Amino acid sequence: MKIAFIGLGNMGAGMAANLVKAGHEVRAFDLSPDALEAAQGNGCATFTSAKEACEGAEAVVSMLPNGAIVKGVYEAEVIGVAPAGAVFLDCSTIDVATAREVILAAEAGGYEMVDAPVSGGIAAAASGTLTFMVGGTGSAFGRAQPILEAMGKAVIHAGDAGNGQAAKICNNMLLAIHMAGTCEAFAMAEKLGLDAQTFYDISSVSSGQNWSMTSYCPVPGVGPQSPSDNDYAGGFATALMLKDLRLAMEAAGTSDAKTPMGEQAAKLYEDFAGAGNEGLDFSAIIKTL
After folding, report:
1. What is the mean pLDDT of residues 188-215?
2. Which of 121, 143, 160 is the last residue of a domain?
3. In this structure, are 93 and 176 located in the same domain?
4. Burial class (CB in 10 A: 0-12, 13-18, 19+), 276
5. In the list 50, 171, 174, 245, which could disulfide-bond 77, CB 3.0-4.6 Å?
6. Whole-number Å distance between alpha carbons of 210 and 54
């Protein structure tokens, strides 16, 4: 299949490479010359504009920084440019309202489209083990599914347009809450004289067990390898977690959802990022405790 891929950043680069490995003809575009050069090395054909990449494509996949860019790219360079009947897959993490607006515009132009944000970091994008949360019609999901399966380990239909984004921001709000609580527990255990490994051995098989503890422990040298073992470099940057929390708070406001724990997590990460820690993994929030 001819697939246009727009956005070759840390996540998009690996995703596009996996589509090539799956046998697809990938037509790639990014504003970065270095990203385009790397994509060529991974077997992609590269183009000087998103519009040019979309010409003749049977599917368009995008991985872009925010909703405004997604909307602008699709309105100006994708809708009406890609051949009639092409399917669109936006894998960016953006606000629910913009995701639904762009999908409606695509459908009005005669296309099918899904929002398909991802769970998993750069390593998962490179290894093809992402999880995709997909919003859109059953027909659009059916067309998008085999493309997504070439880039991930799990592809889950979350319901109507925008529900992929809803699942992503709810999941990451919960993750931020879990991580903050896990950090508090480890910090308090230490102050009470309890060894971190001993606390891990107890809590990891008790009712306090959670993913932030057993798969992504914020304490160096405890549990499986995680960014804490690399001075909190790599992983899921604080700036990205804060972006997702802001989207969650925006969605909570528009849906009249009560999120007191989410609000507190957002405040913690807002302060942590504002202190110059945007590039550290989000588990580094333990430094504040």
Report:
1. 98
2. 160
3. no
4. exposed
5. 50
6. 42
For 25-29, the CB contacts below 8 A with 24+ separation are 25/1, 27/2, 27/3, 27/53, 27/54, 27/56, 27/57, 28/4, 28/53, 29/4, 29/5, 29/53
Going by C-alpha positions, the residue among 170, 131, 176, 174 that lies closest to residue 282 is 176
The pLDDT value given to residue 234: 87
Half-sphere exposure of 273 (CA within 13 A, CB side): 20
Write out the catalytic residue numbers.
168
Integer-rounded Cα Rg, in Å, for the chain is 20
Q: Locate 232 and state its tokens.
A: 């909190």
Q: How far apart are the first and last CA of the chain?
A: 51
- Domain co-membership, 173 together with 129: no
Pick from 121, 142, 160: which residue ends a domain?
160
Q: What mean pLDDT comes out for the span 50-64?
A: 98
Residue-range definition of the domain harbouring residue 44: 2-160
Would you tell me the crossing angle of helices 96-108 and 163-191 to the nearest 10 degrees? 160
Average pLDDT in the chain: 97
Answer yes or no: are the C-beta atoms of 158 and 135 closer than 8 Å. Answer: yes
Split into its structural domains, the chain has a count of: 2
- The pTM assigned to this predicted structure is 0.93
- The pLDDT, as a whole number, for residue 121 is 84
Instruction: Read off φ and ψ for residue 4, nearest 5 degrees.
Output: -80, 135
The closest of 42, 36, 38 to 6, measured between CA atoms, is 36
Q: Are residues 212 and 105 in the same domain?
A: no
Shared domain for 146 and 25, answered yes or no, is yes
